[in-house]
């Protein structure tokens, strides 16, 4: 059976995705900086690896067929951590995946990462980091899916999304649970080509919207 490495498995989306994969009896290696944050998870399908993303975490990827990069520096950190985690750690993860012949790399990116210059706000350094990480993955030679969610919310999963950006900016949002369920669908299905798409709450079932 295949094994998925989830980088950032103790973050909100990362943990939700870990739980969903385990419920579907998928083998998961959860990479976290502090394993106590996953102390409530028990499953014969789970292996927890404690490692700092600012160091060498290449060992965690060995034996894994798939990677989900869901790590992030967090809103309370400075631009230095954004550079080290959202860009450098993501680039290292892609390099490690390439060296270990990983079959599929799923990147959790962000709306606006396609063109950081289009947004003048404090988020620009974060979007630049995401943009560069996405570009590195796309040029790596790996099979990849890059998901760019809209503004994240804590709403319950509606299980309905859209990949079309709403005209109304206030509607360009998505629940973290919907993102996690979309990642589950992507991780447990085969796709014929590399893809980059945005993701928002919508009216279409996840399995149909994320073909």
Descriptive overview:
The protein has 211 residues and is an alpha/beta fold. The protein has one domain: 3-Layer(aba) Sandwich (Rossmann fold). Helix content is 30%, strand content 23%. The chain has five helices and eleven strands, in the order E-H-E-E-E-H-E-H-E-E-E-E-H-E-E-H. The chain has a nine-stranded mixed β-sheet, with helices on both faces. Strands 7-9 form a two-stranded parallel sheet. Helix 1 packs across helix 4 and helix 2 runs parallel beside helix 3. The protein is globular, with a radius of gyration of 16 Å. 43% of the residues are buried. The mean pLDDT is 94. This is SDR family oxidoreductase. InterPro entries: NAD(P)-bd_dom (IPR016040), NAD(P)-bd_dom_sf (IPR036291). It comes from Pseudoalteromonas marina.
């Amino acid at each position: 059976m295949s094994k998925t490495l989830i980088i950032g498995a103790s973050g909100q989306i990362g943990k939700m995705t870990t739980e969903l994969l385990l419920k579907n009896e998928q083998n998961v290696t959860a990479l976290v900086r502090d394993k106590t944050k996953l102390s409530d998870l028990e499953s014969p399908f789970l292996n927890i690896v404690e490692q700092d993303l600012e160091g060498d975490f290449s060992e965690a990827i060995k034996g894994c067929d798939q990677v989900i990069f869901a790590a992030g520096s967090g809103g309370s950190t400075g631009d230095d951590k954004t550079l080290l985690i959202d860009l450098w750690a993501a680039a290292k993860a892609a390099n490690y995946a390439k060296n270990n012949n990983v079959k599929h790399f799923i990147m959790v990116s962000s709306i606006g990462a396609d063109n950081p210059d289009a947004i003048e706000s404090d988020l620009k350094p974060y979007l630049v980091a995401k943009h560069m990480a996405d570009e590195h993955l796309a040029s790596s030679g790996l099979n990849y899916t890059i998901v760019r969610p809209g503004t994240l919310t804590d709403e319950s999963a509606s299980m309905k999304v859209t990949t079309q950006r709403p005209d109304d900016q206030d509607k360009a949002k998505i629940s973290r649970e919907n993102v996690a369920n979309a990642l589950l669908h992507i991780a447990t299905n085969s796709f014929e080509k590399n893809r980059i798409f945005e993701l928002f709450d919508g009216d279409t079932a996840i399995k149909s919207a994320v073909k």
